[in-house]
Structures
1.
Amino acid sequence: MSIPEPFDQGWLDVGDGHRIYYEQSGNPQGIPIVLLHGGPGDGSRPSNRRFFDGQIWRLIMFDQRGAGKSLPTASLEANTTQHLLRDIEHLRAHLDIQRWAVSGGSWGSLLALAYAIAFPQNVLGLILRGVVLGGRDQVDWWFQGREIVFPDLHKQLRTYLPESEQHSLLHAYHRRLIDPDPAVHLPAAQRLRAFMLPMTRLVPAASAMAAPDPQHALNIGRLWTHYCMNDFFLPADHVLNHIRSLHTLPAIIVQGRYDMVTPFRAAYRLAEAWPQAGLIDVRQGGHSADDPAISDALCAAHRDMAAQLSEHS
């Protein structure tokens, strides 16, 4: 499937000194769908347009506060989940969309769920990949638990720090990433990104072994640790405690069985609490949307969602 080019793009002032970049592609008269990128801090990627049939969908992608082309870059000022939820609503109103489907991967899956819980009347359906529920167990896995699978990578992450700080990697890296001195925050961002990248795909691509782009690494590292430090600015078990409010929405969960970033358990727990949601167990999939099996499953999930929405329109 060819990757559609944007027919509209721009920056939207959402207040607090932030301007978010957005673009629209596909069919202007198609089913509206907004894609929520991961990270936090990763930014939208043009290649992700390939998951959406350009004749069926009116695809809206945007860069969340501090990410991608949004300004100011890597800013933590007024940057919480509640701010992002308001930004999504601001963008929906700006584009004069009454209701839209929501697709989100990794951190974007948690943001999509939080948005649907806050504004269910504005959501047509949900497509989720690599489920994040925002619990402390997932944060612990990211910074400590993966040592059992990637001891070599974890050693590089850990030994970058003085021994006195190695007991709390999240706090130690967060302190460095928010330091105003580039000589402090940039190397820390690159080390953290070098730890994360090889784990995103079932079979790592050569690009995962290359030196990370410093600015992109800073965007992700600073925002990701900021959100982890603050429990994603959501109450404990927020999604599972409110999942009943989404039981009338069509939903599809795409989850790699061998996802080393967001292991299968979170998606399984979500599906157990939300039997109306279809769980696609991708047996040859890791975390990244670029894993071939995950890519195929995402294309199929968006086709299936479009068929469901067209059937009930």
2.
Amino acid sequence: MKPHDHIGWVFDGAPQFDALAVPFLAEGAARGEQLMYVSADPEPGLAARLGDGLAPGTLQVASIVEVYGASGIVDAAAQRATFAAALTQAKADGYTGIRVAADNTPLVADEERLAAWLRWEILADRFMSENPVTGLCAFDREKVEVDRLRHLATLHPLSSAGSPAPQYRLFADAGNLRVEGLIDSFTVGQLRLALDVLPPGTGVLIDLAAAAFTSRRPFAGLQRLAEAGVPVTVQGPPDALDELTAAGSAPNGHLTLEQTAT
């Protein structure tokens, strides 16, 4: 893992999360990063054990309540400000960036918390893409049902091998929201929700080398997004773009079809 990487990791039980966090944090220490370990209730002495051999202050161990608040319903904008302040302080202290290993299982425990967390994941991914931040978002398979884990995976550009495979992924890419995987009408609806959280002017980027439309209906949804002023770019070989045009996705002021090499 390196700066800007953002991975969703599914684990089995608290001991497995700690076993995962140790090498992840050690890798960050070697890069000169400020390290953060977050879980629901860190055990006493954990900081000393995980931070053995590190310079004082390199590792910060905190509870979910301390980082995300007592309600467990994350305010995305406020949380971004929290991590932006942590990054600013870390760089002032001479670190190259920050690296966060977090067991976020309690923050997706019900529908209200999950909805708030999904908004935060969208904003967090954008923040990591623009700053020297590395994030490991971990969820306990023993406590989170599989469909919820699959939904969470859609908002992480990287996933552990044991994570449920999502149909699609939405993640930040150079100021755009990139879409990969199978794109249907539901995907376009999730895309709209994600854009509501992101800064105005955020575009949508679809590379047909890593994405495919399930039918003509998503084309119309993308065109409506473009007509509403969202810059939408679809990249692909000439024959694939010709199929889109034939299906009614003609370019307009905000919908661009870019040819790539065959």
